[in-house]
Design goal:
With 455 residues, this protein is α+β, with helices and mostly antiparallel strands. Helix content is 69%, strand content 15%. It has 12 helices and 6 strands.
């Protein structure tokens, strides 16, 4: 009796420990929304893009500063030596009166306000466009990060489903192998049935090893993105999940939106504007006069004038300074040609981004539609494969089917289940890519997909 009591106590403690570990696993679970938030705080590529955006945000202020007044203050210390000649017809050495050098300090404060500087106005517009391009690039980097973590998360789910399917297939083949051995021993089956089952079992074992390795690789990739260890298993799609068609169900509307709202298109559009302003900046800097308003206050301590020394002299000056470029060795002509060529290149780059966005949108849209059709087809195929397996098992038991028929039916069922799982995840990912191509992917879209996962 005491021994039984100790055994019962041990079982109770083991059960309690198992429940505790299960609770800890649930507490530290990871769903898609959590993975996305973790990735945005840990993904090095996204964090680098964030810092680049912070740097680009300062460009507009830098450009604005070129149009605002600038002030300078200078202090200089100088020594003045001079001779005074009473008789200009006499020799200098004989008639000159020499004075020892005098030290003086000069203070100058100048304020310059650009009035007409066309190249600075062009630079200001360029810097504003660089800030806009930085915003678009950062928003695109955020979308890319969300797609990366979603892809990595789905890769883990697909690998999990694949391994589970291989495990189930291996178990089923093992049972069929044992059945073939028993039937051979009693003389109701040939050695061929056993050998065929053994070959399938060995092949499934190799597939299981590959599936486990693939799962570990996919888990490692996701772990690197989110910056922490993953739970034992990620939960996949609910069994009753229903995938939705794109809204609106018109690829032309999606394409129209992507040609203007796609973030890479917006960045390329800013780059084209920058190149256009560069032509203005180059041509104006080398050919257009500039006009500045300059206010200056100057003080000299002490001040020397005609051999007279005064304690201090102050002057206030307000002037308009006009600068007219005349000739610069022919460099402006070649610089203008270069700027025009780069402007044209930026225009073609913009059109290329628009076409790329259009193609990405069309590909994702068609991928969603094809995926939905595939999911329906695979769901029907799974039901048919399951019925076929049951029929073959029954036929094998009554002797109208051979072992290879059962093995083929099992393989067909498990292959269909793996294809169905992958088709579902690919369809969801294409729906996110469609919104990304149209510049409309947001956190709520990730949360919507997360709501389709089992809790």
């Amino acid at each position: 009796m005491p021994q039984k009591s100790r055994t019962s106590n041990f079982k109770f403690q083991s059960t309690a420990a198992a429940l505790l570990m299960l609770g800890m696993g649930s507490a530290f679970g990871l769903d898609l929304s959590t993975a996305a938030r973790d990735a945005l705080g840990h993904d090095a590529a996204f964090l680098a893009a964030r810092k680049k955006a912070e740097a680009d945000a300062t460009r507009a202020g830098q450009g604005r500063g070129l149009l605002l007044p600038s002030a300078t203050a200078t202090v200089s210390r100088s020594r003045t030596d001079f001779d005074v000649t009473d008789n200009p017809n006499a020799s200098t050495r004989a008639s000159a009166i020499s004075y020892s050098g005098r030290l003086g300090t000069t203070y100058v404060v100048a304020l310059t306000q650009p009035i007409f500087r066309l190249e600075r106005l062009a630079t200001f517009n360029q810097e504003k466009e660089r800030s806009r391009a930085g915003e678009a690039n950062f928003a695109q980097a955020r979308i890319d990060a969300l797609l990366r973590v979603t892809q990595a998360y789905f890769d883990v789910l697909i690998a999990q489903d694949s391994l589970a399917s291989v495990d189930a297939e291996l178990k089923a083949i093992g049972e069929q192998l044992e059945s073939a051995k028993r039937n051979f021993e009693v003389g109701t089956a040939t050695i061929t049935d056993q050998q065929e089952a053994q070959a399938r079992f060995d092949l499934a074992t190799a597939k299981q090893i590959a599936a486990r390795n693939d799962l570990e690789v996919k888990r490692s990739a996701l772990s690197i993105l989110v910056g922490k260890a993953l739970p034992q298993r990620l939960l996949g799609l609910r069994s009753d999940v229903s995938l939705q068609s794109p809204e609106p169900l018109d690829v032309a509307k999606w394409i129209d939106q992507s040609r203007s709202a796609n973030l890479r298109v917006q960045a390329a559009q800013s780059a084209a504007e920058i190149a256009r302003y560069e032509v203005t900046r180059i041509t104006s800097a080398d050919n257009v006069p500039t006009l500045d308003l300059v206010a200056q206050k100057r003080r000299v301590d002490p001040f020397t004038l005609s051999s007279n020394v005064y304690p201090r002299a102050e002057t206030d000056t307000l002037s308009l300074e006009l600068s007219i470029p005349i000739f610069n060795g022919g460099i402006p002509l070649h610089r203008a040609r270069e700027a025009i060529a780069l402007r044209d290149k930026a225009g073609f780059d913009l059109e290329n981004e628009r076409r790329t966005a259009e193609q990405a949108t069309r590909t994702a849209f068609l991928g969603v539609l094809a995926g939905l059709s595939q999911v329906k087809a695979f769901e029907a195929a799974e039901k048919s494969s399951r019925l076929a397996l049951e029929s073959n098992l029954l036929g094998y038991e009554v002797g109208v089917r051979i072992n290879i028929d059962v093995l083929n039916a099992q393989q067909q069922l498990f292959t269909t289940q793996r294809d169905l799982s992958k088709a579902r995840y690919d369809t969801l990912l294409n729906s996110l890519r469609l919104k990304a191509a149209a510049g409309a992917l947001a956190d709520r879209d990730i949360d919507d997909v997360n709501g389709l996962l089992a809790k």
